[in-house]
Structures are given as C-alpha cells and as structure tokens.
Design a protein that fits this description.
This protein is mostly helical. The chain has one domain. The longest helix has 23 residues. The chain is elongated and about 45 Å long.
Length: 75
C-alpha cells in the first residue's frame, strides 16, 4: 500500500476494513471457508490441526498489520 493510499484510507475511515480484507485474503490463500469452518468445529477433536490453523491466522494478521498499518512484524 502506498503512502497516498494509506492517507486516503485513514481519511475515509476504511483502514480497518482494508486490514480485515487483507487478513481474509491471506487466510483464503491456504484455507477455503469450508475448511476453516471444519477446523473450528473439530478443534477439540484435532487440536494439532487447529493449532496449525491458529498459528497461520496469527501470522496472516501480523503480515496484514505490517502491510496496512506499517507496523513492524515481531516474533
């Protein structure tokens, strides 16, 4: 995202929506909606699969936060 795009999104109040859309897009690169819902439904039956999914989503959130808000990605 360019600086001018970011400033416009800040003015419009759409920065948070851009962040949410970016997280969604990153998650969809690996998991379809039905796969994601299945993982959520069966998280107690297969905690290792849910853990992998959860870690991936958190990484997507960090990447999107860095891209949209310009925050450093820290481990």
């Amino acid at each position: 995202m360019t600086k001018s795009q970011k400033k416009l999104a800040e003015k419009n109040g759409t920065l948070d929506a851009l962040y949410a859309a970016r997280v969604h897009a990153l998650v969809r690169e690996r998991y379809s909606l039905s796969e994601e819902l299945s993982l959520l439904r069966r998280r107690e039956e297969k905690p290792e699969n849910f853990g992998t999914y959860y870690d991936f989503v958190e990484a997507c959130k960090k990447a999107a936060r860095a891209e949209i808000y310009g925050e450093e990605m820290s481990e």
